[in-house]
Amino acid sequence: MKIDRLMETLHILNELGETDRGIERVAYTYEEYIAKQYLMREGTLLGLETEIDAAGNVIVRLPGADDSLPPVIIGSHLDTIYQGGRYDGLLGVVAGFEIIRSIKEAEIRTQHPIELIGFTCEESSRFNFATLGSKVMMNKVDLATLENLQDRNGVSLREAVKEQGLELDQFPQADQSNRRVKAFYELHIEQGPKLIKENKQIGIVTGIAAPLRLAIHISGKSSHSGTTGMKNRRDALLAAAELSLAVEEAGLLEDEYETVATVGVLDISPRAMNVVPGSASLKVDIRSIYADSRERVLERIKEKAEQIEKKRATPISMEIIQNDDPVMMDEDLAQAVAVTCEEVGVSYMFMASGAGHDAMNTASRWPTTLIFVPSVDGLSHHPDEFTEEKDIEIGVTVLEMEVLKQAGGFVNN
């Protein structure tokens, strides 16, 4: 592995979508398409097999000595959020490409084939639908759901993919859910501060927290702020504020399980300085790798909502709009990564991921592990997102050793 070449590839791909607001290589845009074409071209020049599947995922393949054996796969995503950073997703793709390129150049032929998958549309930014490419590949979404997706400009997913030479109706052809795979690896920046805080070089993810999301509506009564006495008000905003604090408290009570609860959206109506708010809507996100902990948070929120409803005479309705299962990573692969870290003298820790990744979809069908490298200041989804080159080199070195071990019995040509 050549770290200078890896960093150069990272730079080249980040020029696609670079703006003064950050990187915008958003799903199914020209910038993301050109990034896929770059990997296809570079892979072809190396004599690798390349393709873009029916859903727009790019695949680069190094055949094995016994090509009938299940492959070892490295994958992450190419797309960014709006005003995104330089490392989220892309680092894992570039790392995989550099590993395959280095193995090819060293004339090492592994027994198992090795593949790189650059997933499309991992971020929910454009179509409000996350990990689309890996969901399609794992047969975890139907066409009826995809048919209804559109971006903030009213462009449908169908229209967007057609501009890239794809057809939405052909997406099921990208299904690889029944394929035999020996191991799937995703290398990703942590997007949080734990590794730096604990002074560890590698994070070995044990599980990925899944969201339970609520839509809450509070009905108060709009009235004149100057003529409505304080004791006669049915203030929806104050009920929402009280409930928001209850969400925080419910999450804090599950701190030992690293469960988190967030009020990410709060809208009120009417929005006037001289009117008591008559209604409020909240969106709540609860995440944990422990389903029972997440349920306890939900029950506390429900209990507090009932109390607030009676106290303030503000009816509260609550709807669960998403309830995904937490995903555990493969224990054997995680332990193997730990052994490799010990062999090369790299510090590590086992940890959960609070953010979603393509690995949570592949884990439903393939043995999967997720490896984190540190994010400076824990910053991600921001133009200032940064990971030190030395930390990237350590992460890719560990990943390369794991891939070679899993690919097995390599011989020089």
UniProtKB/TrEMBL annotation:
Cofactor note: Binds 2 Zn(2+) ions per subunit.
Binding site for Zn(2+) 1: H77, D88, H188
InterPro entries for this protein: Amidase_Cbmase (IPR010158), Bact_exopeptidase_dim_dom (IPR036264), Peptidase_M20 (IPR002933), Peptidase_M20_dimer (IPR011650)
Domain of life: Bacteria
Requisite cofactors: Zn(2+)
Residues reported to bind Zn(2+) 2: D88, E123, H381
Pfam families given in the database record: M20_dimer, Peptidase_M20
PANTHER family assigned to the protein according to its UniProt record, in alphabetical order: ALLANTOATE AMIDOHYDROLASE (PTHR32494:SF5), ALLANTOATE DEIMINASE-RELATED (PTHR32494)
Protein name: Hydrolase
Lineage: Bacteria, Bacillati, Bacillota, Bacilli, Bacillales
